[in-house]
Amino acid sequence: MTVIKTDAPDTMTETLSLANISKSYSGVAALTDVSVHIRPGEVHAILGENGAGKSTLMNVATGTTQPDSGSIVFEGQAVHSLDPKLATTLGIAIVHQHPAVLPDMTVLENLQVALPASVFRDGGAHEVAQRLIDEAGLRVHLHDRVETLTLAEKHLLEIVKAFAVRPKLLVLDEPTAPLGADAVDALFERVRGVVAAGTAVIYITHRMAEVRELADRVTVLRDGRLRGTSAVADISDDELLALIIGRKLDSTFPPKHDADVDQPANFVLEDLTGPGFATVSASARRGDIIGIAGVVGNGQSELLRALAGLESFSGQVAVEGAALSSGNLLHRAAYMPADRHAEGLMMSLSVRENAAVSALSRFKRGFLIGRDAEVAAVHDSLQSLSVKAPSMEAQVAALSGGNQQKVVISRALLSDPVILVADEPTQGVDIGARAEIYTILRAASRDGIPVVVASSDAKELEGLCDQVLVMSRGHVVATLKGDEVTEERIVSAAVTSTAEVVAVAAAQRKTASSRFRRFILGDYTPTVLLLCVMVALAAYIVPENDRYLSAFNITNLLTAATALGFIALGQNIALLTGGIDLSVGPLAGFLVVIASFFVNDGKSMGTVLLGLAIMLAVAAFVGLVNGCLIRFGKFTPIAATLATYIGLGGFAFLLRSTQDGYISQSFQSAVNYSLGAVPVAFIVFLVIVIGLEFALRRRPWGWKLRAVGSNEESARRIGIKVSRTVVLAYVASSLFVFLGALMLMGQYGIGDPSQGSAYTLTSITAVVLGGTSLLGGRGTFVGTLAGAVLLQQVLNATGFLGLGSTAQYYFQGLLILVAAVVYTLARSRRTKRTLVT
């Protein structure tokens, strides 16, 4: 990370100069010798088809991607090894096309982890954050979890983060794609404001109307190469199109259907009512495309989800005279969601797998899938849609946005649907790919498949659709057909409506933002449930055996819970990053075996301290090995920690083949010392848990830990050093195992090579009971404490109730099952939010 002064006089007045930038991926050139110069106080538009290299170039400009060659000069200084953190320091901010937000964290936490502390110096974090989202028109609660936000709200949150740092260079990558007209106007007004103050703005878009309205200069990329730069006033739309697509585009929209007035309707909606919309009626003939219009958030997406069978409804949906229920539609409708990354594609799977997944029944050969039939069908479908991909086995994440959208269409058509429902089908897609998608939708309609398209672009609906239903506040306020389908009439109907809000939609909005609902969906609900279970269990046992609440039993229970709790804290840290640490149990046992050679009666204090130091060093080293295997050796967390699990078990038996080496009695007494019925060690454990919980919620360490587990790519984009965070997390995990080993030394008092292994699964159980997600990003340390105590309480209770040791495993299994069910029910909800604007 080096900044060097440059002598180049022509760059001194430029905010950013990218010179001769080249970048390749696996030998495929994404950028070739591209040079762009951005001046202060201007909006510089970057145009090009999907895959032209626009986003790659901006990733280079913001430090997310390192170029293979070329130079970056910022405000007259050559910058080497630019990364997101340095970019932020220099004053570079970006609004990503796919928002770099962290779904498991709240709106406030997303702002705190992404923005420098200096942003919050003008007041309390809550007050500053509230002001920032109000300025952007983002109407959500600061403690709403980001996964509950709509796609448009996530984009607004991304915009909030970018403007908050008052950047010298602002990069906007398709910022208006999911936004309604009012939000777009507000964004443009803010852009003009920062430009007037001297900020340089790079604006990436596929909409030339926006270029005309906002930009001063424009640069066009095609196939990773620079095709030209011009003042916007000096170049025509036709000239821009020729540069963008390299060919003449005869027409963006295919010819509309010439309907036979005597032809019966093949698609009928009658009084359709569901969450967020009411009494929707329409009919269409074969070959017609129905458009759904309106200001974003007025029931359009909810209506489309109902037509796809994803929402319940009343009323009737009929195709070719046959009524279809919600269950029928779920299995027979094809749905193209607005957010293709979150709902439309499985980004880690191949192009073939994504295209074929909805049509696998077509390829069945007995109990198996016929691979040849699958490959042939997918190949023909992708070829007919002109999908550009390295191969069918390439990850779909490697494709451009337009080609990803074609894969979604391919899957829809391969499923042989009775209806095709498309929500914002051309969002983030270049003009050439748009024309191809329009042609595909028109062809499907001509083949007799009813096509319903929702779009926030009235011009798109005018060119594509044969009739348009304009929605406002959940109601259809206008049905436009034939020559009535014009941009002016669509917009006019939407903005002049006086329809009342659908009651259910308003109730959902209120419920979504209520404090009680946020708590129920929050991280502390499992902890409260565990406390209730503990109280109920104690209340059941006490009448059966009054010794249950004796000081002796409470001390034993809390001491055992402390040993498990320290190990579980380490496990929790690993799980929060999205990993897992299977080595915690054997590591605890191995550390006790090491101690059995040093912490003995008759040994000097120096020897005892040396033994403890060796234990601490070994724990840290094991954590470092685990972290490095995962981040740099590219092992999965399970594979890496399973390897150390086996290795530590073997080393323990090499040191001691049988139980031997008694731990000093004075050391055991110190570990087991109690104040009344409460062990001092448990008090220490409780204090550490409170400190960790505070750090998890209020300090950068906790935000970064959860950010990596929530969405690693987003965490990297906002400047978090992901590898360092993960490696240090595994080191911390092993250090907590060291504390657990000290407790085991006091409890067992002997070096046992087989001791500790059982703590691996028990620690995972305690953490999961406490509500930590196995997928990472979500959990609490308080819940881990409660889970550890409950597990020991269950084991303790079996003795008092006279049950055998087998019952312990039944109870543990039952607890895990209940925790999994409750956790799943709490998380498995769809966001049903209707925005009233």
UniProtKB/TrEMBL annotation:
Its main location: membrane. GO terms for cellular component: plasma membrane. InterPro entries: AAA+_ATPase (IPR003593), ABC_carbohydrate_import_ATPase (IPR050107), ABC_transp_permease (IPR001851), ABC_transporter-like_ATP-bd (IPR003439), ABC_transporter-like_CS (IPR017871). Residues 16-248, 256-498 form the ABC transporter domain. Keywords: ATP-binding, Cell membrane, Membrane, Nucleotide-binding, Repeat, Sugar transport, Translocase, Transmembrane, Transmembrane helix, Transport. PROSITE patterns: ABC_TRANSPORTER_1, ABC_TRANSPORTER_2. It is found in: Cell membrane. The chain crosses the membrane at residues 490-507, 519-542, 548-570, 582-599, 605-625, 637-655, 675-696, 726-750, 756-775, 782-803, 809-826. GO terms for molecular function: ATP binding; ATP hydrolysis activity; transmembrane transporter activity. This is ATP-binding cassette domain-containing protein. It comes from Nocardioides panacis.
